[in-house]
Automatic annotation (TrEMBL), chain A:
Domain spans labelled ABC transporter: 12-257
PROSITE patterns: ABC_TRANSPORTER_1, ABC_TRANSPORTER_2
Family to which the UniProt record says this protein belongs: Belongs to the ABC transporter superfamily.
UniProt keyword terms in alphabetical order: Amino-acid transport, ATP-binding, Cell membrane, Membrane, Nucleotide-binding, Transport
CDD domains: ABC_HisP_GlnQ
Pfam families the UniProt entry points to: ABC_tran
A GO MF term: ABC-type amino acid transporter activity
SUPFAM superfamilies documented for this protein: P-loop containing nucleoside triphosphate hydrolases
Chief place where the protein resides: membrane
Compartments it resides in: Cell inner membrane
Lineage: superkingdom: Bacteria
Designated name of the protein: Ectoine/hydroxyectoine ABC transporter ATP-binding protein EhuA
From TrEMBL, chain B:
Transmembrane feature ranges: 15-48, 193-215
UniProt organism field: Salinicola socius
NCBIfam families: ectoine_ehuD (TIGR03003), HEQRo_perm_3TM (TIGR01726)
Membrane topology: Multi-pass membrane protein
Record GO terms (molecular function): transmembrane transporter activity
A Pfam family per the record: BPD_transp_1
Compartments where found: Cell inner membrane; Cell membrane
Protein's UniProt name: Ectoine/hydroxyectoine ABC transporter permease subunit EhuD
C-alpha cells in the first residue's frame, strides 16, 4: 500500500457492523467512516451506541457482524486469502497501536505516579528507553500544564487534572486516532473547561484523527469537522456542525438538540 | 515426666510452672503445623484459583466442584481419609505431614476464593486502560492488577492463618503432639486436666490476639491504592 492511496482511504470504516448485548441491538448494521485527520463528534441519546463505537475501535468490545477497518486493514479480522478470519491477539495488538483512548472515569493506574502512568506503556510496549520515555512524558505533562504534578499519585490530583493525565497517557503511545469517551462527564462543572482546552489544542493538529463522544454541545460545535447524530444504533443524521446545530433535517435530531440545549423548556 | 521434663505436683502453682516448658514443646509443633499448613493452603489455593478462572469449562468446573467439596466436608473427615484411608492404598505419610496437608487442603478452598475476590475487586477500567495501552496480559497482571489486589488479599489471608492455628488441635486425634495433645497427655498421666487445658486456652488467646493485631495492622497500613510503583 503506498501513501497516496493511504491518504484517500478513510482511516476508520464501519461496514454494516452489528453489535448486540443479549437481545438488545446496540449497533444496527452501522456504516460509518472517518477520514484521516478528521475531527468527528458523535452525539445522541444514551444507549444509542455512541460509546460502543469507540469501545469496538479500542478492541474492548467485540462485534457480532460486519467488518471494521482501521487504516484500510480489518480490525477484528485477518485476511486469509480472499476471506476474513477472526483476528489473532497479535493482529489486535498491531492494530491497537494506532489508537489511543481517553476514558470517562480516567482509569489512571492509582499505584503509579503521574509520570510512571505516562512511561509504563512506552517503555514496555514500544521499547523506548526509560530516560527517553521520561523526557517525552515531561513534554506531554507540559502540554497539559501539569509538570509540577509528575511525582504525585493520581488521587492527589483533581478530576480535571487526572483527565489531563489520561489524555497525556494516551498521547504517549503516539496514536494516529484519539478516541474520547465522554471525557468530561465524570467531572465537576468547574473542571470541565481545563480538559476541553487540552482537547481543543489537540484538535489543531492536522494529522491527528479525533473521534469524540460528548454531551458538551458548544464544544463539539467549535472543534468538530463533522457531527454524527446517533439514534438506535445507526447514524440518523450527520453533517457540518453549523448544519446540524442550526438546521437539523431530522425530527429526532431536532428533539434531541432541543432537549440538551434548552433543558429548562 | 514428658519430653524429659518432670512435673512438680507439690502445689498448683508449682505444677503450672513445671508443665509450662512441656506445653511450649507442643506450642512449637502447633506453630509448625500452622505455618506448613498455611503455605500449602497458599500454594494450592493459587492453583485452584487459576483453574477456576480458566477459559474452558472443562477445567473450571472440576476445580469449582473440588472447592465446594472441600468446603462442605468437615476437616476431621478429610484428616481421617488422609491418615487411615491412604495407607490402605499403600501411601503412608508421617502424622505431622498428614495433619499439615489436611489443614492446607481444607484452607486452600478458602484462600482460592480470597485470591479470586481480590483480583476481581480491581476495577474493570484498569484492565481496559492496560489493553488500550497495548500492555501484554502478563505485564498487566504483574504490574497493574496484582499490585492493586495484594493489599486486599493479604489481610484476608491473615485471617485464615489465625483460623488454621485454631484448627491445629484437631490434629491431636491422629497422634500429632501439638499443644492440646500434649496437655491431654499431661492430664491423663497426672489426673489433673484443669491446669494444662486452661494454660493451652490462655496460650491460644495470647497467640490469637497477637495475630489479630498483626492482621489489623496490615489492614490499615497496606497502601489502599496498591503497592506503589514509581
Amino acid at each position: 500500500m503506498n501513501d497516496a492511496t493511504n491518504t484517500r482511504d478513510p482511516i476508520i470504516k464501519f461496514d454494516k457492523v452489528v453489535k448486540r448485548f443479549g437481545d438488545h441491538v446496540v449497533l444496527d448494521e452501522l456504516d460509518f467512516e472517518v477520514q484521516r485527520g478528521e475531527k468527528v463528534t458523535i452525539i445522541g441519546p444514551s444507549g444509542s451506541g455512541k460509546s460502543t463505537v469507540l469501545r469496538i475501535l479500542m478492541t474492548l468490545e467485540e462485534i457480532n457482524d460486519g467488518v471494521v477497518y482501521v487504516g484500510g486493514e480489518p480490525l477484528w479480522h485477518q485476511r486469509k486469502g480472499d476471506s476474513l478470519a477472526p483476528a489473532s491477539e497479535q493482529h489486535l495488538r498491531q492494530m491497537r497501536s494506532q489508537l489511543g483512548m481517553v476514558f470517562q472515569q480516567f482509569n489512571l493506574f492509582p499505584h503509579m505516579t503521574v509520570l510512571r502512568n505516562l512511561t509504563e506503556a512506552p517503555v514496555q510496549v514500544l521499547g523506548v528507553s526509560k530516560a527517553e520515555a521520561r523526557k517525552r512524558g515531561m513534554e506531554l505533562l507540559e502540554m497539559v500544564g501539569l509538570t509540577d504534578q509528575a511525582n504525585k499519585y493520581p488521587h492527589q490530583l483533581s478530576g480535571g487534572q487526572q483527565q489531563r493525565v489520561g489524555i497525556a497517557r494516551a498521547l504517549a503511545m503516539r496514536p494516529k486516532v484519539m478516541l474520547f469517551d465522554e471525557p468530561t462527564s465524570a467531572l465537576d462543572p468547574e473542571l470541565v473547561g481545563e480538559v476541553l482546552n487540552v482537547i481543543r489544542s489537540l484538535a489543531d493538529e492536522h494529522d491527528l484523527t479525533m473521534l469524540l463522544v460528548t454531551h458538551e454541545m458548544h464544544f463539539a460545535r467549535q472543534v468538530s469537522d463533522r457531527i454524527c447524530f446517533f439514534d438506535q444504533g445507526r447514524i440518523k443524521e450527520q453533517g457540518k456542525p453549523e448544519e446540524i446545530f442550526t438546521a437539523p433535517k431530522e425530527e429526532r435530531t431536532r428533539a434531541f438538540l432541543k432537549a440538551v440545549l434548552d433543558p429548562d423548556d | 515426666m514428658f519430653f524429659g521434663i518432670e512435673w512438680d505436683t507439690s502445689s498448683q502453682w508449682a505444677f503450672a510452672i513445671s508443665i509450662f516448658p512441656i506445653l511450649l514443646h507442643g506450642l512449637v509443633v502447633t506453630l509448625q503445623a500452622t505455618v506448613v499448613g498455611f503455605f500449602i493452603a497458599l500454594a494450592l489455593g493459587l492453583v485452584l484459583a487459576a483453574l477456576k478462572s480458566a477459559p474452558t469449562r472443562i477445567i473450571r468446573w472440576p476445580a469449582k466442584l473440588v472447592t465446594e467439596f472441600i468446603r462442605d466436608t468437615p476437616l476431621l473427615i478429610q484428616l481421617f481419609f488422609l491418615f487411615y484411608v491412604l495407607p490402605e492404598f499403600g501411601l503412608t505419610l508421617p502424622a505431622f505431614l498428614t495433619g499439615a496437608l489436611a489443614l492446607g487442603v481444607q484452607y486452600s478452598a478458602y484462600t482460592s476464593e480470597v485470591y479470586r475476590a481480590g483480583l476481581e475487586a480491581v476495577a474493570k477500567g484498569q484492565r481496559e486502560a492496560a489493553r488500550a495501552l497495548n500492555l501484554a496480559s502478563s505485564r498487566t497482571f504483574t504490574h497493574i492488577i496484582l499490585p492493586q489486589a495484594i493489599p486486599r488479599i493479604i489481610p484476608a489471608l491473615g485471617n485464615y492463618l489465625v483460623s488454621i492455628m485454631k484448627d491445629v488441635p484437631v490434629l491431636s486425634v491422629v497422634t500429632v503432639l501439638e499443644m492440646l495433645g500434649v496437655a491431654k497427655i499431661i492430664g491423663d498421666r497426672t489426673g489433673g486436666y484443669l491446669i494444662p487445658l486452661s494454660m493451652v486456652g490462655g496460650l491460644y488467646l495470647v497467640m490469637t490476639l497477637i495475630a489479630s493485631f498483626g492482621v489489623r495492622y496490615l489492614d490499615t497500613h497496606l497502601p489502599k491504592r496498591g503497592l506503589s510503583l514509581k
